[in-house]
Amino acid sequence: MDGSVTASIDASAGPPPYFRGNESSLVSALKTLLFFTILMVTLPIGLYFATKAYIFEGSMKMSSSDSYFYAAIVAVLAVHVVLALFVYVAWNEGTPKGKGKHD
User: Fold this and answer.
1) From CA 9, how far away is CA 40, in angstroms rounded?
2) Of 39, 42, 22, the residue nearest 89 (C-alpha)
């Protein structure tokens, strides 16, 4: 009975030592996630209102209903671009940065 209590105390001592070496990669991943989260919220909304007001209604003199439609298409395209960039960055985040052949 005493052995199980000792084992549970040892298990709650903290994370294993190999975890501490990955803190910089964890911080890097969280920074990347935070950056793309902010980009995902601000870019499509900003492009929607900017293209609606300045490009479609301002420069092209479209009606309000047409400019809503085309501005929404621009916002959806921006979402897809941000998602594709996030996948690309996340996919290449752990790869070595050296050039040349690796055997």
Assistant:
1) 44
2) 39
> pLDDT category, 29, cuts 50, 70, 90?
confident
Distance CA 48, CA 78 (A): 9
pLDDT in tens, 42-95: 999 999 999 999 999 999 999 999 999 999 999 999 999 999 999 999 899 877
At 47, which amino acid appears? Answer: L
Would you tell me the crossing angle of helices 64-91 and 23-50 to the nearest 10 degrees? 170
Q: Is 53 helix (H, G, I), strand (E, B) or coil?
A: helix
Q: Which of 73, 94, 91 is nearest to 36 (CA)?
A: 91
Alpha helices in the chain (DSSP H): 2-11, 17-20, 23-50, 64-91
pTM for the predicted model, two decimal places: 0.69
Which residues are CB-contacts of 96 (< 8 A; sequence separation ≥ 6)? 102
